[in-house]
Every structure is written in structure tokens, then in C-alpha cells.
Amino acid sequence: MRAMPWLPSHKRYPSVRMGNGYTPFDLDPYMHDKKMLPAPGKSANNLAAQIYTQLKADIFDFKLLPGDKFSEGDIATRMQVSRTPVRQALFWLQREGYVDVLFRSGWQVHAFDFKYFEDLYEVRVMMETSAIARIVERKETARLDAMRAIWCVPKRKQLKDAATVASMDEAFHANLVAAVGNDEMVRIHQDVTERIRIIRRLDFTKPTRIDATYQEHAEILETIFSKDARRAQELIRKHIGESQAEVKRITFYMLQEARERYGNRQEA
């Protein structure tokens, strides 16, 4: 099966900024895939933000696959809104590299770009290994106590739902970086996390990934608490590398299969 490059383009569009400095929705690293949209407001901008959030969730949940084509009218009909906020939401997604506008024929989910993802994973490794070094150096491992309570648990207490553990995995890495206390570092890491989310979701379609994630996170944390920064950095490089390797294995069949699995989970 021929691998198909996908999402986002090599153009590094900045995230859409609202008044608070973030994208139209405030990403919660624990519950990024909530189906609850913000309460509708009176402004078209608020409605456009809700549509933006839902369309991005559709991409991350494999409801919209690379190459899928659709029109503003299709989205407006499905969401029971006018085309104006739909168009605004799509322009935001286009600026971030998630969709392309097609001349006289609507919109299309952007194709994979392997080099783009490789670059993002390199940035992520640099940030997280740096975070580990600073936490150990400053003797601030106590900031990770809550993470230890989640991941260093016996097998009978480990969760099994792939989507839930995928969200928890994002939170693990986000909180590791947040423990450093550098707000700008957190913002950049959050942006990288969102852009590679689709790869991590694919990774968690494999049953063995859940057990491995618990084991690897626990080992990383225990090594940090033992103040062995170098070993912890080696472990997190290997851990992130497992997800990064998934980029090279992506095929259209895998995306279709993921769409079916996530669809069945949501209908259950």
C-alpha cells in the first residue's frame, strides 16, 4: 500500500490568535477531544470559533481524512449555520495548514508532509529533554508528584480506552514541560502537540501501545525522581521516537481503519 503524505503543509502558519493569545479555543491538555463546544454567543466570531473547533476535531478524529473534499455549503448544512462563519473558520484552518481552498471547487483536507512532522518531533524532543534537565537541576521533581500518581500504578488500575490514554499521554508531556515554569515554552510545546496529534492518535490504535505507554511513562518518572537526568533524557527520546516512527508507516488504509475505529467508539 502506497504511503500518503498528509497534514499540515511546509508553510509554518502561526496559530490563529484571539484576545487571550491562544487559538479560538483554550486547549485543555487532558480533554482536548471534548465534544462539548463553547456556548454559542451573539457574535459571528464566536460562532466561527465553534465551527473551527469542531472541524479540527473532525480531522483529529479521522472523520475528515487527507484529500477529503467538501464545500462551505456542506459544512453549513451539517452544522445548521450560515456560510459566513463557516468561511471564517475555514480561513483560520487554512492559515494553520490543515485545509486548502480549491479554485471553484470548495475545500480539501491538506495532504501529509513527512518532513514537516519529522521537524516537529525534533523540536519536541529538544524541549522535553531540556525540561527534564532543568527539573532535575533545580530539584523540582515534586512538581511531578501528580503525574506519578497517574502513571506509576499497578496494571489493574491502568485505563484501557485508547482515546482516553492518548489524551492522558498528551497531558503527561505537556505537564512535564509546564513544570519548568516557562510560559512561552509551554505555548510552543502546545502548538507542536496539536500539530502532531493525528500521528499520536494513529499510534494509539494499536492495543500494545497502551501498556507500553504506562510502562515507559512510569520508567521516565522514576528515573527523574532518582535524579538521573541523562538516563531520563535517553528514555524520553526513545519513547517519543516510537510515535515518530509511526509517521513513516502511515498509509491510506491505516487512516481509513482509524476512521472506522474512532467512529465505532463514538457511537458506542
**How much strand?**
under 5%
Low-confidence stretches: 1-42
| Count of individual helical segments | 11
| Overall outline | elongated
What's the helix-strand series?
HEHHEEHHHHHHHH
Mean pLDDT over the full residue set: 80
Biggest sheet strand line-up = 1-3-2
Mind summarizing the main beta sheet? Answer: 3 strands, antiparallel
Class by helix and strand content? mainly alpha
CATH fold label of the largest domain: Four Helix Bundle (Hemerythrin (Met), subunit A)
Full CATH superfamily name of the largest domain:
GntR ligand-binding domain-like
Number of strands: 3
Can you name the CATH architecture of the largest domain?
Up-down Bundle
Determine the N-to-C terminus distance: 30 Å
Described by its quaternary structure, the protein is single chain
Question: Which helices and strands occur, and which strands form pairs?
Answer:
Blueprint: H1 44-60, E1 69-70, H2 72-79, H3 83-95, E2 99-102, E3 106-109, H4 114-137, H5 145-151, H6 162-178, H7 183-195, H8 197-203, H9 207-225, H10 229-246, H11 252-267
Antiparallel strand pairs: 1-3, 2-3
Describe the fold and architecture.
The chain is mostly helical. It has two domains: 1-112, Winged helix-like DNA-binding domain superfamily/Winged helix DNA-binding domain (Arc Repressor Mutant, subunit A, Orthogonal Bundle); 114-249, GntR ligand-binding domain-like (Four Helix Bundle (Hemerythrin (Met), subunit A)). The chain has helices spanning 44-60, 72-79, 83-95, 114-137, 145-151, 162-178, 183-195, 197-203, 207-225, 229-246, 252-267, and strands at residues 69-70, 99-102, 106-109. Strands 1-3-2 form a three-stranded antiparallel β-sheet. α6 (162-178) runs antiparallel to α7 and α9 (207-225) packs antiparallel against α10 (229-246). The protein is elongated and about 60 Å long.
